Amino acid sequence: MLLHLPNSIRYLLPLLICLLIFSNVSAQNARYTISGYIRDARSGEELIGATVVVKELPALGASTNAYGFFSLSIPAGNYTIIAQYIGYVPSSKTILLKQNTKLDFIITAQENQLQTVEISSRRQNENVVKTQMGVESLDMREVNTIPVLMGERDVIKTMQLIPGIKSAGEGNSGFYVRGGSADQNLILLDEAPVYNASHLLGFFSVFNSDAIKNVTIYKGGMPSEYGGRLSSVLDIKMNDGNNQNFAVSGGIGLISSRLNIEGPIVKDKGSFTISARRSYADIFLKLSSDSSVRDSRLFFYDINAKANYKINENNRVYLSGYFGKDVLGFKDLFGFDWGNSTGTMRWNHLFSEKLFSNTSLIFSNYNYNIDINAGIADFNIISRIQDWNFKQDFEYYPGARSTFKFGLNAIHHQIVPGAISAGEASGINSRELPNRYSLENALYASHDYKINEKFNLTYGLRLSGFSVLGPGDFYTNNAAGDPVDTTNFTSGEFVKTYINPEPRLAISYILSDQHSVKAAYGRNAQYLHLLSNSTAGSPTDLWLPSGPFVKPGLADQVSVGYFRNFKENTYEFSTEVYYKKMQNQLDYRNGAQLEFNDNVESELLIGAGRAYGVEFFLKKKYGKFNGWVGYTLSRSERQFEFINNGNYYPAKQDRTHDLSLVGIYNLNEKWTFSSTFIYNTGNAITFPSGKYRINGRVENLYTERNGYRMPPYHRLDIGATWNRKKTDKFESSWSFSIYNLYARENAYIIQFEPSETDPNRTEAIQIALFKMVPSFSYNFKFK
């Protein structure tokens, strides 16, 4: 249900009035509507972000939405309509437009797609003319070429090479966007939130690239349909499957193998795809002569599945799911597993040529389970966060210059903070923390409007609400964190409700076809918070909903940018400057106890944050050699009353310099070479400033929070792909890579311990995870 709608709808009224005014203006100019889908000729997949242009009206055009649908209204007349997409041969149709017309396009992929010069995704100068800034899309062909650890193709690791996006550290799939923390990123897989996106404690992400169709990340100024996080949205769409032919593909690597099966349910009407991946470190453990090692477990698996069916020209249904788990165990003494499961049911409906609807019912679950069975220590620990999510989205195309989006979203959160089941002889009491329930709801509306040939405007409003629900005891704490009062709420009773309007605005001014300037503003609210006292993150980290003490996080971000293309759009250059102000940020009291604390709010401090910086991006898109250079100069700071005397101090993700170089060279049809180089300032960290002796024991003295730096991080990776065989029915390739080519020992942990030769001296001991790591994989596809 939508909370306090009658009292809150006033926030939407000014926006709705503007929408109606613009709608009337646009409708007067519109004559007839051309609408349809753009699909891949070989697989039948709808193409996201493909462009439809009118040859006789070059200033007008449309892009396909997340389901490959477009709608374009223009005056009656004779026209040539052209559909195009990166790496595909354009398709054109000549029509006499005198009524609303359904027009689908089937376009064919070019060979040697990375060397394509003539064709661009959307328009060749799309980065210049589009209104949105702070948004990047990943080309899956580049993802599959760029060298990564153990040869595991990884969209998150590739995304971290983009300016403004920083890795949370080596061996960690978390990431920071424009100074925000790792939990301030909303990660969506077919609309379902993914709360822990890592395998093997962060060395790999849960996203199998074989199952992925499209990846888009919003670094700021995100559209109104997105909400719930302060820093970014990572929107990942799964493949729909081939509705023309059956195909089997896969690969065998050093750490894991994968298999993908796809094909038609009914040709041209429905398809399915199933992708599976499993690591096999546990198989090599079986070769050990040590029975303890031989009986241990260490592996992960994930399964992606999706099916869709076109009921008729106006209705299509989708069903998709993800299931993944990590398993870590030592004999029968210790077991630890964690994993995600998601499910999405969607219904696409066309009310008319101008009104598109998507209705979704979404399930998401993340849980972990720990089993200890070592002598008298016999107990089990579980925790879970589970969502049921309903979304209704509409897209309305009144004219060639306007697109409206509006809808609603309602999420029911259930958080199981933790439960311990202990054996009678374990010496540990069984304990269960009370579950936390909440409702997160939103209404949104936005308008993308082309004012004239120079000005483009996108504005919108998201009205979000969050209610904490009973049952449970809720504490009132004093400034020192001590509870002074307790209130009990019954099941379903409203404990606390927050309402936040979140305005969004983006504007662009096109100086010419080759360069433009843009500006954006956005406010975001976040109602769920991740509690972790680990710098690298852990599967056992706790999600905490906002409540009477922990208020929703708020972030206001302003950004401006300059965008420039060179040499017939072969080169793209952009620079963006941003400033982000954050409210209600969380940090921890010294010695905070987060695990199994039914009053964990008492361990928290509430403060503010700010982040600012400038990003530079230069990309060569076409030719035998392509790639990009990204550089970010930035700061990220926090301020809490009881930390560092109330002064701003660097957040742990604060890195002054961040540089990435990516190069891809297509030598010929057989060989492709690639390389990446990364350099960044070390994370801010709290090191001991001195030491003291108490009761004969030496203790470290900590003063300034995050007053020191880890050493700078840098690394060079290289890779090569050999396309061994390609026919109409079969293709195969080998991929080779070397991670950390010059064996740099980048610091993972620095520990301070007494010197073995002189106990009065303290030594800093650096631990590195990886030196040089070579890898290879074999990839195949039967068509």
Structure commentary:
The protein has 783 residues and is mainly beta. It folds into three domains: 31-123, Immunoglobulin-like; 135-234, Ferric Hydroxamate Uptake Protein, Chain A, domain 1, CATH 2.170.130; 235-782, Beta Barrel (Maltoporin, Chain A). The protein is built from seven helices and 52 strands. It has a 22-stranded antiparallel beta barrel. Strands 1, 4, 6, 8 and 9 form a five-stranded mixed sheet that branches. The protein has a five-stranded mixed sheet with strand order 10-17-18-13-14. The longest helix has 17 residues, at 13-29. Mean pLDDT is 85; it is low at 1-9, 20-30 and 113-122.
Features:
783 residues, mainly beta, Immunoglobulin-like, Ferric Hydroxamate Uptake Protein, Chain A, domain 1, Maltoporin, Chain A, 3 domains, 22-stranded antiparallel beta barrel, five-stranded mixed sheet, 7 helices, 5% helix, 59% strand, disordered N terminus
Q: What's the helix and strand layout?
A:
Elements: H1 5-8, H2 13-29, E1 32-40, E2 51-54, E3 57-63, E4 69-74, E5 77-84, E6 88-89, E7 91-97, E8 101-102, E9 105-109, H3 126-129, E10 135-138, H4 140-143, H5 155-159, E11 165-167, E12 175-177, E13 185-189, E14 192-193, E15 198-199, E16 204-205, E17 212-218, E18 232-238, E19 247-253, E20 256-266, E21 270-279, H6 281-285, H7 291-294, E22 297-312, E23 315-330, E24 334-350, E25 355-374, E26 377-399, E27 402-422, E28 431-432, E29 436-450, E30 455-469, E31 472-477, E32 483-489, E33 494-512, E34 515-526, E35 528-531, E36 542-545, E37 553-566, E38 571-588, E39 604-620, E40 625-639, E41 649-650, E42 657-666, E43 671-680, E44 684-685, E45 690-694, E46 697-701, E47 708-709, E48 713-726, E49 730-739, E50 747-754, E51 762-768, E52 773-782
